[in-house]
Amino acid sequence: MACMxxxxxxxxxxxxxxxxxxxxxARRLRELNVYCEIHxxxxxxxxxxxxxxxxxxxxxxxxxxxxxxxxxxAHDLVYNMGVPILGICYGQQVMxxxxxxxxxxxxxxxxxxxAFVEKKNSSDxxxxxxxxxxxxxxxxxxxxxxxIAPGFEVFGTxxxxxxxxxxxEKRHFYAVQFHPEVHHTPxxxxxxxxxxxxxxxxxxxxxDAYKEIAIKKIRKQVGSKKVICGLSGGxxxxxxxxxxxxxxxxxxxxxxxxxxxxxxxxxxxxISMFRDNYNIPLIHADESDLxxxxxxxxxxxxxxxxxxxxxxxxxxxxxxxxxxxxEFLAQGTLYPDVxxxxxxxxxxxxxxxxxxxxGGLPEKMGLKLLEPLRELFKDEVRxxxxxxxxxxxxxxxxxxxxxxxxxRCPGKITRDKLEILRQAxxxxxxxxxxxxxxxxxxxxxxxxxPVRTVGVMGDGRTYDYxxxxxxxxxxxxxxxxxxxxxxxxLGETATRIINEVEGINRVTYDITSKPPGTIEWE
Length: 522
Known about the structure:
By secondary structure, this protein is an alpha/beta fold. It has helices at about 20-30, 45-50, 90-100, 190-200, 205-220, 235-250, 265-275, 290-295, 300-320, 335-340, 360-365, 380-385, 390-395, 415-435, 485-500; strands at about 10-15, 35-40, 55-60, 85-90, 100-105, 110-120, 135-140, 145, 155-160, 160-170, 175, 225-230, 250-260, 280-285, 325-330, 370, 445-455, 460-475, 480, 505-510. The protein folds into three domains: about 10-200, Class I glutamine amidotransferase (GATase) domain (Rossmann fold); about 205-395, HUPs (Rossmann fold), CATH 3.40.50.620; about 415-510, GMP Synthetase, Chain A, domain 3 (2-Layer Sandwich). The chain contains 15 helices and 20 strands. The strands form four sheets. A nine-stranded mixed beta sheet has the order 2-1-3-4-11-10-9-6-7, with helices on both faces. Strands 14-13-12-15-16 form a five-stranded parallel beta sheet, with helices on both faces. The longest helix is centred in the middle third of the chain and has 20 residues, at about 300-320.
């Protein structure tokens, strides 16, 4: 969604120079009810700037060095639009380099991690800062500004960054060497609030406003045609379906492909919610035998994903072809998906794992895409779900991958192993809910391991599967830490699983963070 002038919200443009935390800038702004868009630096040109008409611009950090020939630069028009600009880390350096300052590499002034900034002069950007002598920030830079550009003055310094905070108050150009977007800069939010105030940006980006605009947009785009929505039962597709249904009613038909890889009782939950609560036309495509027969004995994770993806496309198309006058395919695409699909350097990104989706369907079926959530982060989708009055227990559900239990079953897939896994996972989630921990955790699940272990139950020897439990905390799934259960919880849960689930005699807990691991096992 472009920052249209007729909308009830202003736009802030984030120019991306490749920082791993650029998305956090957008998240901080959205949390402050400010609409923003991220665009790679090479895509920021006269046409984009005219279309977006941003009221302020932020230059992100990045891994490159402005001293290197050919390193990224901001378009010259950025500095001539008459709007406030905030440069962060590499953004500070590129601003200085382009406006007449100097940047040098090395020479002992690099900083990584926690640092403390001391006040030198007052600025509107720092209103509410420095109520103590020094403020904590998070640094991550090798190069440093050695000379500030004409018109700039120093507002704050750190031991290794004499120009930690600088600004040109007349033009409302500001730059910081640290990262205010990360949690390790405790007062970063205040700095963004001050910058928004300086730019006179209206804080009107709310899910209520978004819902009304999205409904009008859907009605205009779809007209009298029909829409098919691939419903997975996850939060994203559920919210997309509810939003579209509110916009066009019975012109929407959902197709729920049951591939036999769902959690215990999940198919019934999804079907009852949409048929009983929303009266949305819904096709329940129970094709579990088809999927499980082809997956039987498969062990390679990429092979599993490709089989599921191929069969999903075929099955979805089979049922979708029965819907007359269908012209649109709805997907629950989110903003992080959109951002990550545009490589910072214009080339393909490394494939960590294939993603299960219906991306190949529109071209094959001659359908147009309808993606009403493509401007939203995950937490905003949940907020929109609340506006649409989706059941609270559904909005707060942990993410569940498209390939389902197939990627929580490393090694060969069998029906027996899937049933054991379902039961173990159900006990685990029941334990989490019973202890009141579900909402504290981003995602939790059990995985059945491709090994059998010797155990003793009663007076007999067992030789059964081991399972591992996984629980992580995260904001958006991009990075994650394991949840610190206490040993009493883990012991109680392990005992329940071993006693209640036939086929498991050993339970472990996965304490790997992301990175280096992924959240899912495959």
